[in-house]
Amino acid sequence: AQTVTQSQPEMSVQEAETVTLSCTYDTSESDYYLFWYKQPPSRQMILVIRQEAYKQQNATENRFSVNFQKAAKSFSLKISDSQLGDAAMYFCAYSGPGANSKLTFGKGITLSVRP
Amino acid sequence: DTGVSQNPRHKITKRGQNVTFRCDPISEHNRLYWYRQTLGQGPEFLTYFQNEAQLEKSRLLSDRFSAERPKGSFSTLEIQRTEQGDSAMYLCASSLSSGGPQETQYFGPGTRLLVL
To answer: Model confidence over B13-61: pLDDT tens digits?
Structure first.
């Protein structure tokens, strides 16, 4: 079975600084998809960024980028120029290939941003 | 496009009662997922539909749980004889599967259930 591990329960970053959130996963598949979702307090979960395992290039979305290390099964999220609105719970998630589209989530990490 | 909606947003019930939640996906989305999220944990997959067909159910979905998507549009999740352990946030997500690369799931705001 696939597992996703987020070992840091909480992190804090100064506004305008950079922070990296860690995630590791375990799978026997060679083709799969990885996601970072953001869940603000009392608000719905939204997709931050996604990475296809067959792509060697790391995904980037504005201030958000990932460091995807397939051999190490590591998928970290870097947030640059942190903003107060980045404060939220962040979940790393895995999805298998083909029709196996359900998401397996990590426990999440609570990110606080200090003004 | 108003996104995924869920009703009710909050539900308090007594142990042993039945509850039903509704999810309205994004209109053109053919896949609909249900997840459960307990405090301090990530969401856990319960079940999903492609159109009206229920394609997969988690072992978390005991026989007290049933989900339907009768016309391939909205879905309902019913919990019979609720137990205190059912207290959680129930999340619905939808996506458009076109046979290509893995689609993105869009989440609703969730229904928070408290069983007393």
So the answer is: 999 999 999 999 999 899 999 999 998 899 999 999 999 999 989 988 8
- Would you say residue A1 has pLDDT above 80? no
Mean pLDDT estimate for chain A = 93
A50 touches chain B (CB under 8 A): yes
* DSSP-derived 3-state class of residue B85: helix
Q: Which two tokens stand for residue A53?
A: 């395992």
Tokens 């980028």 correspond to A65
Q: Is the pLDDT of residue A30 over 90?
A: no
Chain B contact for A114 (CB, 8 A cutoff): no
The single-letter code of the amino acid at A86 is: D
B111 within 8 A of B5, measured Cβ to Cβ: no
Distance, in Å, from the CA atom of B37 to the CA atom of B68, rounded to the nearest integer, reads 20
CB atoms within 10 A of CB B67: 20
State phi, psi for B84 to the nearest 5 degrees: -60, -30
The residue of A6, A43, A49, A101 whose CB has the most chain B CBs within 10 angstroms, and thus the best one to mutate to test that interface, is A101
For residues A85, A86, A91, A95, the Cα torsion angle rounded to the nearest 10 degrees is 90
Strand partners, A113: A13
3-state SS, chain A, equals CCEEECCCCEEEEECCCCEEECCEEECCCCCCEEEEEEECCCCCCEEEEEEECCCCCCCEECCEEEEEECCCCEEEEEECCCCHHHCEEEEEEEECCCCCCCEEECCCEEEEEEC
Instruction: State pLDDT tens for residues B53-100.
Output: 999 899 888 899 999 999 889 999 999 999 999 999 999 999 988 766
